[in-house]
Amino acid sequence: ISIFGSQELAKQFGLTPNQAGFGLGSFSIGSTLAADKCPSPPTCDRSYPYRSYNASCNNLKKPLWGTSGSPFQRTLLPQYSDGIWNPKVAKSGEALPSARLVSINIVPDVDAPSELDTHNVMQWGQFVDHDITHTPLFRLSDKNTTGIQCCTDGGEDQVSQIVYHPQCLPIAIPENDPFFRKHKQRCMNFVRSLPGPNQDCTFGYAEQQNQITHFHDGSNVYGSLEDEAMELRLKKGGLMKNFK
Fold first, then answer.
1. β-strands 171-172, 187-188: how paired?
2. How many CB atoms lie within 10 A of CB 136?
3. CA distances from 41 to 60, 171, 178, 196 (A)
4. CA–CA separation, 225 and 143 (whole Å)
5. What CA–CA distance (Å, rounded) separates 66 from 213?
6. Nearest-angstrom CA–CA distance, 77 and 96
7. Which of 83, 218, 229, 238 is most buried, judging by how many CB atoms fall within 10 Å of its CB?
8. How far is CA 99 from CA 60, 102, 169, in A?
9. Is 130 a catalytic residue?
């Protein structure tokens, strides 16, 4: 709602990308019909000895910081082409080069064994990553878990524009790609990330959502919501279920 509202305001008032993305951040949604969509800070009990499943109240001054479902925070400001949500483009206004074309020119597709880094480094890094980040993607509907398909089944090309989902951003694969050319694949499926609710409840640019807690708290083991956590527990002897 805040994204589409911001885009509509930018259109009505002829705002530049900077005015739309950053200027509209000074205006609250709390005074509009969408006020009920604003995140509500929980009531924190300072004497409660345990952390919450969704990380709320980890920071007593900012109780929503790092909670599951909240947006990621940026090191650098976004560069949306409209300042709000539309994908970045080149300064000329043309589409940027294929991400796959860039990656194969920067990272050589060669086997490079390391005498220092073991699989344990990779595995621990992946565990930490999956503990603090999980970005959900757009799907066909809330009740339908089917993924959006942006390429043909064989990956030869993008799907027909008639069924081209608005959140598709397929990646073009070069014809001479060192890996995919043998599979004759020219299209890589890529669906946009779901935005997170603006915690300041303002208009302005979109931020991507983190579906789990932002803290290194074992949420990839214990869950990031109370109902998830309860589903994983035996509720007896402090034990968790064993899944075979």
1. antiparallel
2. 14
3. 10, 39, 50, 15
4. 19
5. 6
6. 18
7. 83
8. 41, 5, 11
9. yes
Q: Confirm if 202 and 77 have CB atoms less than 8 A apart.
A: no
List 130, 165, 183, 214, catalytic entry: 130
Structure tokens at 75: 């090191």
Residues 6+ apart with CB under 8 A from 184: 154, 155, 156
Residue with token string 């005498």 = 115
Q: Report d(CA 25, CA 140) in Å as an integer.
A: 29
Dihedral Cα 24, 27, 30, 33, nearest 10 deg: -60
pLDDT tens per residue across span 206-237: 999 999 999 999 999 999 999 999 999 998 98
Yes or no: say if 12 and 208 are a contact pair by the CB < 8 Å rule. Answer: no
Task: Give me the half-sphere count of Cα atoms (radius 13 Å) on the Cβ side of residue 159.
Answer: 16
pTM, to two decimals: 0.87
